[in-house]
Recover the amino acids of this structure.
């Protein structure tokens, strides 16, 4: 049996090999939704772009539910492979596939049947309701495709093919740009064209990442293994932090949208949409850093090589801080130019007002990125080591708990500025949570 390179290869080379493609793939994957916004903002106007942002939490639910199984399965399978427990790894992988198929099918049914109630619940008013519901209904039809594109792509990192997900994501991105240009730019199909383009692009990406996982020569594949309910339940519990992360992201967008709608109507939502696109780009880089080191952490933890774990985490923390600092400075000094990439004011007074709101908000919102990279790596670190409780606490603090608290504390006092303050507040409090968890683990001699 060949030696596992995750356990033997020098860490700097391993870090570059796994983190680079993971960051690129995560960013390109996340850009899919931004592409819709870019085309709609420039060809269909701010209301179409705002309706997509209203529907964004449903997209996050599809991704988040997939990531619960994906991250938990990859973490547990990595530890099994590191400990040379091949049968348990194969059984877990087969179990995850079956559960993911059932889960994505349920989302498909719910989204197609209840699109309008979901859009209304997410905050769509009379102006945005039809487009938001249309986006949700069509996107739901592609839920299984999106789920398995992510799952098979992540699997490549554990079977020695870290560039597989990147190849699939590049395919998805190129397809999405081309199809959006045709559907929205040339044919004028608006929201329907944009969401159909996104779904078909994910299908193209899935067709790239799936084939290697159908070969018995691959350590983990869809042809081997048996269903083990207990194993997949444990993996899902460990991956729950990813579900909480995406649920928190959906809740954050939902609450922020409602707050901006209350203070500035559709213009406020459009301004947040622009900033959220730019912020998501950097957040995806940070999550790519965390996802890239996950197989390194889990495999070395299974093999008991703690020194390699600590060095890998330290490198990831430093990298994410530099990324966050870069966006903070970009928002502060060149915010208007950056926002201009997503939305052009033209001669419309309303469009100019949207950009002014976004420029002011970016300087406040940008503070959150000085801390978010630390929190993201810490959450992923605990997931990779199988510490589901700590990971869930960190993920919940970032969004489920502290975003609502921040909105309640600051929006009433500072209005629109107070709404922008909620994410920096949530990230700052979560840093304290991370440090407290780390101190408790050290006290009990836990890595």
């Amino acid at each position: 049996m060949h030696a596992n390179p995750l356990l033997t290869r020098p860490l700097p080379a391993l870090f570059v090999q796994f983190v680079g493609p993971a960051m690129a793939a995560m960013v390109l994957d996340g850009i899919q939704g931004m592409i819709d916004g870019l085309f709609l903002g420039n060809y269909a106007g701010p209301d179409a772009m705002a309706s997509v942002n209203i529907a964004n939490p449903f997209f996050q639910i599809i991704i988040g539910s997939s990531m619960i199984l994906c991250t938990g399965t990859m973490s547990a399978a990595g530890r099994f492979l590191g400990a040379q427990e091949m049968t348990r790894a194969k059984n877990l992988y087969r179990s995850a596939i079956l559960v993911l198929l059932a889960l994505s099918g349920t989302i498909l049914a719910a989204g197609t049947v209840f699109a309008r109630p979901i859009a209304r619940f997410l905050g769509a008013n009379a102006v945005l309701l039809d487009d938001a519901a249309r986006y949700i209904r069509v996107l739901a039809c592609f839920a299984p495709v999106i789920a398995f594109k992510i799952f098979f792509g992540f699997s490549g990192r554990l079977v020695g093919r870290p560039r597989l997900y990147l190849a699939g994501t590049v395919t998805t991105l190129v397809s999405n740009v081309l199809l959006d240009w045709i559907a929205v730019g040339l044919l004028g199909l608006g929201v329907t064209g944009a969401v159909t383009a996104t779904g078909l692009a994910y299908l193209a990406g899935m067709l790239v990442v799936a084939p290697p996982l159908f070969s018995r020569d691959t350590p983990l594949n869809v042809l081997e293994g048996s269903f083990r309910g207990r194993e997949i339940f444990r993996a899902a519990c460990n991956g729950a932090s990813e579900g909480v992360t995406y649920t928190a992201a959906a809740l954050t967008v939902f609450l922020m949208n409602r707050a901006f709608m209350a203070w500035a109507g559709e213009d406020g939502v459009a301004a947040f949409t622009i900033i959220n696109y730019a912020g998501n780009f950097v957040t995806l880089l940070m999550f790519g850093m965390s996802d890239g080191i996950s197989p390194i952490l889990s495999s070395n933890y299974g093999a008991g090589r703690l020194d390699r774990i600590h060095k890998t985490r330290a490198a990831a923390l430093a990298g994410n801080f530099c990324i966050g600092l870069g966006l903070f400075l970009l928002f502060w000094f060149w915010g208007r130019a950056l926002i201009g990439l997503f939305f052009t004011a033209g001669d419309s007074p309303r469009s100019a007002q949207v950009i002014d709101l976004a420029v002011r908000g970016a300087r406040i919102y940008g503070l959150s990125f000085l801390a978010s990279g630390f929190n993201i790596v810490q959450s992923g670190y605990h997931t990779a080591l199988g510490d589901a409780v700590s990971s869930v606490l960190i993920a919940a603090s970032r969004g489920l708990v502290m975003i609502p608290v921040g909105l309640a504390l600051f929006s009433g006092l500072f209005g629109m500025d107070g709404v922008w303050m909620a994410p920096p507040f949530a990230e700052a409090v979560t840093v304290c949570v991370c440090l407290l968890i780390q101190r408790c683990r050290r006290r009990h001699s836990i890595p």
Remarks:
- The mean pLDDT is 86.
